[in-house]
């Protein structure tokens, strides 16, 4: 299928999702005030999505038209993942569509209310924790800040185990094993947990949780060393600023310092409790297919692995696999860069012809949405992503099943991320990106607006060339080399408007690539004003073809006001720069010199209302 035909089919699918309810074979209604004993009609709706899903399964085996589930406005609080599988699919070329009632906003929330707030110390309040563990807290819809502070005074790295500090009072801190040391270094944002703190004469000895601290110190790329790169987080003793909070897990108590104007007796406070809100899980033999979600907000997802072991960031929110390390001259990595992806709060696995249209992903504790493991012909269109701890959209992965699958059905292929507004994500794990793409075939990232990110806007490819046929840079040792190429090919990054990224990190860009990607193109993107305004961070900031990047075309892009290079190459050592074709770009020029690029890039007219959303 050619790209043009495939895109036309995708747009037809979206039109089907938006068609009038009169075209439906059946319609079911749910409402927060409904009852699952009801028949699911407009006047007597169900109460839960799972009850509607059950009703769909009674009529979707031989469909003659679309089946619609209409969600009335309001919040649907869930206490476990809502799982869809192949039995929930559309059949006969029709779709099962979960959509908002016109003019209303249904919200699927994995959060629990925090109530019964009482004054504690002057300026500080406390309440019983409704969840045993969580990393985020939202007050009146605004993410609160975990209690934090600067690196302890007189901090020194001692041996392999941790630090000493002249702040001897830290030995008396409550719950030291919940304390995190945070390191923002170049492109990585790592978190290491404390194991214990004890007195040693006139100092406090801080022992870090192993083996993760050693991994953070010895991993390849950049690692944690200098104390000046550190801030600390998550201790009651650090709770000293308005808007900060702390969870005393053993005492099951939440503490918070209100911002000016906040009344804790009336405030709506929510803690996340569910790690995956929605999962579409098919199999290679029975993929889930022909299902759509439209106009739905997903919020208050959790992710607790960092609370247990920390967060040893490699790049783009991928973590060292602590169970399968590979040691080589450059430090610690994983076999063939098979690092662990931070999961998203909405996951589509072995899913085909699935669409998310006009949905909102916000107040999430990990990533927004994953398309993974055999996900094919899916579309994410017209959605808004903001206030997300990690990356907004992740397409594909970096494991063996991704770079050299033993079954072609595992390839993540022909997915589209178009006309979305992605901003203010990676707010907790600051190495995250707007859109991440692993080893995929035919991914289209087009007409998105991506803004206000700490690191890169779009990251496509993986492996630094090491997984390509014949291997990559000879200085990177791997136990064996592959003789066949990866599936990474025919990816298109075009007509996006990317600005205000690279605000806190270095060594990234608006568009960043790794590895061979034959048939791929970076075209017609409008890229500008990336990096910190003081120009101390954010290099290079434009289009960045990093190690192993090969067989790419870079054409017709407008790039200006970035920290260093508008187009930066770091693929010379493998001589892959010769395989890349850069031409007809507008680099370092004023936008009025490339009006056609400015006019075409970014959200198309039908989706520009997303920029005006509150």
Describe the structure.
- Strands 1-2-5-24-32-35-39-43-46-49-52-55 form a twelve-stranded parallel β-sheet, with helices on both faces. Strands 3-6-25-33-36-40-44-47-50-53-56 form an eleven-stranded parallel β-sheet, with no helix packed on it.
- Mean pLDDT is 94; it is low at 1-6, 8-13 and 15-22.
- Strand 8 and strand 9 form a beta hairpin.
- The protein has three domains: 1-110 and 274-302, no CATH class; 113-272, no CATH class; 348-471 and 488-614.
- The chain is 7% helix and 37% strand.
- The chain has six helices and 56 strands.
- The chain is mainly β and 614 residues long.
Task: Give a nutshell description of this structure.
The protein has 614 residues and is mainly β.
Quick tags:
globular, 11-stranded parallel sheet, 614 residues, 12-stranded parallel sheet
Uncertain runs are: 1-6, 8-13, 15-22
Shape: globular
Number of helices: 6
Determine the N-to-C terminus distance.
39 Å
Mean pLDDT: 94
- Compute the number of strand runs: 56
Proportion of residues in helical segments? under 10%
Strand order within the widest beta sheet = 1-2-5-24-32-35-39-43-46-49-52-55
Rg (C-alpha, Å): 24 Å
What is the topological layout?
Blueprint: H1 3-17, E1 24-30, H2 49-57, E2 66-71, E3 74-77, E4 82-84, E5 96-100, E6 106-109, E7 111-113, E8 118-119, E9 125-128, E10 138-139, E11 142-143, E12 145-146, E13 148-150, E14 156-158, E15 162-165, E16 180-185, E17 188-200, E18 203-208, H3 212-218, E19 230-233, E20 244-248, E21 253-256, E22 269-272, E23 278-281, E24 288-294, E25 297-301, H4 305-309, E26 313-315, E27 318-319, E28 325-328, E29 331-334, E30 340-341, E31 344-349, E32 351-357, E33 360-364, E34 367-372, E35 379-381, E36 384-388, E37 393-395, H5 400-403, E38 412-413, E39 416-418, E40 421-423, E41 435-437, E42 440-441, E43 444-446, E44 449-451, E45 458-460, E46 492-494, E47 497-499, E48 508-513, E49 516-523, E50 526-528, E51 540-545, E52 550-555, E53 558-560, E54 567-569, E55 581-583, E56 586-587, H6 595-600
Parallel strand pairs: 1-2, 2-5, 3-6, 4-23, 5-24, 6-25, 12-20, 23-31, 24-32, 25-33, 31-34, 32-35, 33-36, 34-37, 35-39, 36-40, 37-41, 38-42, 39-43, 40-44, 41-45, 43-46, 44-47, 45-48, 46-49, 47-50, 48-51, 49-52, 50-53, 51-54, 52-55, 53-56
Antiparallel strand pairs: 7-22, 8-9, 9-21, 10-11, 10-22, 13-19, 14-15, 15-18, 16-17, 16-19, 17-18, 20-21, 26-27, 27-30, 28-29
């Amino acid at each position: 299928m050619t790209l043009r035909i495939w895109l036309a089919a995708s747009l037809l699918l979206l039109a089907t999702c938006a068609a009038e309810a009169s075209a439906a074979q059946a319609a079911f209604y749910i409402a927060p005030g409904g009852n699952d004993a009801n028949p699911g009609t407009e006047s007597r709706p169900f109460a839960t999505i799972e009850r509607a899903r059950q009703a769909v399964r009674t009529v979707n085996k031989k469909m003659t038209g679309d089946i619609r589930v209409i969600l009335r406005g309001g919040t649907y609080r869930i206490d476990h993942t809502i799982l869809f599988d192949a039995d929930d699919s559309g059949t006969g070329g029709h779709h099962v569509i979960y959509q908002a009632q016109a003019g209303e906003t249904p919200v699927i929330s994995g959060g629990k209310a925090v109530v019964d707030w009482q004054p504690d110390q002057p300026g500080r309040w406390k309440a019983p924790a409704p969840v045993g563990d969580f990393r985020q807290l939202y007050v009146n819809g605004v993410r609160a800040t975990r209690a934090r502070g600067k690196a302890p005074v007189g901090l020194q790295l001692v041996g392999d185990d941790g630090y000493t500090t002249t702040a001897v009072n830290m030995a008396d801190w409550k719950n030291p094993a919940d304390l995190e040391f945070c390191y923002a270094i170049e492109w990585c944002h790592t978190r290491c947990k404390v194991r214990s703190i004890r007195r040693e004469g006139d100092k406090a000895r801080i022992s870090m949780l192993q083996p993760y601290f050693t991994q953070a110190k010895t991993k390849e790329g950049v690692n944690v060393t200098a104390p000046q790169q550190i801030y600390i987080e998550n201790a009651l003793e650090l709770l000293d600023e308005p808007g900060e909070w702390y969870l005393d897990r053993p005492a099951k108590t939440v503490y918070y310092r209100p911002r000016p104007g906040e009344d804790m007796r009336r405030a709506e406070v929510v803690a996340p409790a569910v790690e995956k809100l929605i999962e579409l899980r098919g199999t290679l033999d029975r993929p889930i297919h022909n299902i759509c979600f439209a106009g739905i907000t997903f919020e208050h997802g959790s992710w607790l692995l960092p609370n247990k072991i920390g967060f040893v960031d490699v790049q783009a929110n991928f973590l060292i696999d602590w169970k399968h390390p590979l040691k080589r001259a450059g430090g610690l990595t994983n076999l063939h860069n098979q690092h662990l992806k931070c999961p998203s709060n909405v996951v589509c696995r072995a899913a085909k012809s699935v669409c998310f249209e006009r949905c909102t992903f916000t107040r999430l504790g990990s990533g927004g949405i994953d398309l993974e493991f055999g996900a094919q012909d899916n579309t994410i269109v017209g959605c808004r992503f903001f206030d997300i701890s990690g990356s907004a959209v992740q397409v594909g992965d970096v494991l063996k099943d991704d770079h050299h699958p033993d079954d072609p059905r595992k390839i993540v292929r022909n997915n589209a991320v178009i006309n979305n507004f992605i901003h203010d994500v990676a707010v907790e794990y600051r190495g995250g990106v707007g859109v991440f793409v692993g080893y995929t075939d035919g991914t289209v990232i087009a007409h998105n607006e991506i803004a206000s990110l700490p690191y890169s806007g779009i990251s496509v490819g993986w492996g630094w060339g090491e997984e390509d046929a014949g291997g990559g840079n000879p200085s990177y040792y791997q136990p064996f080399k592959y003789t066949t190429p990866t599936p990474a090919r025919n990816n298109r990054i075009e007509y996006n408007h990317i600005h205000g990224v690279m605000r806190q990190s270095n060594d990234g860009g608006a568009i960043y690539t790794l590895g061979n990607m034959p048939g791929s193109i970076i075209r017609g993107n409008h890229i500008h004003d990336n990096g910190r305004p003081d120009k101390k961070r954010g290099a290079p900031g434009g289009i960045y073809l990093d190690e192993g990047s090969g067989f790419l075309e870079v054409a017709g892009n407008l790039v200006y006001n970035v920290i260093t290079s508008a187009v930066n190459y770091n693929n010379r050592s493998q001589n892959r720069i010769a395989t890349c074709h850069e031409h007809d770009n507008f680099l370092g020029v004023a936008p009025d010199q490339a009006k056609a690029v400015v006019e075409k890039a970014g959200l198309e007219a039908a989706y520009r209302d997303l920029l005006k959303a509150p």
